[in-house]
Amino acid sequence: MAKPVLVSNAKPLARIVRECSCGFVFTSGDPADAAAKIEKAYALRGDPEMRLRYTWVVASGGLVQAYEKPAVSGRGEKPR
Description:
This protein is mainly alpha-helical. It has one domain. It has helices spanning about 10-20, 30-45, 50-55, 55-70; strands at about 5-10, 25. Strands 1-2 form a two-stranded parallel ribbon.
C-alpha cells in the first residue's frame, strides 16, 4: 500500500477500499474510530512526505483558491 486512503463506511467508498486493500474504513460519526484508523495509516506508512503533503493545512489552500476563483459560464462570461 503506497499511500493508504481513509474513507467513511459509505458503501461505495468502503467497497473500493476493501476490494483494493488500499486504505482504511472508519465508521461514520465515530471520531474515535477515525482517529484509530488515522493512527494505523501513519504507523503503516511513516512517510514524512505523507505528513507534509496530505495535511488539512496544505489541502485547504488549494480548496480556498478554487472557491475564490470567479465562476465563468460556458461562454466565457461571469454568471449574473
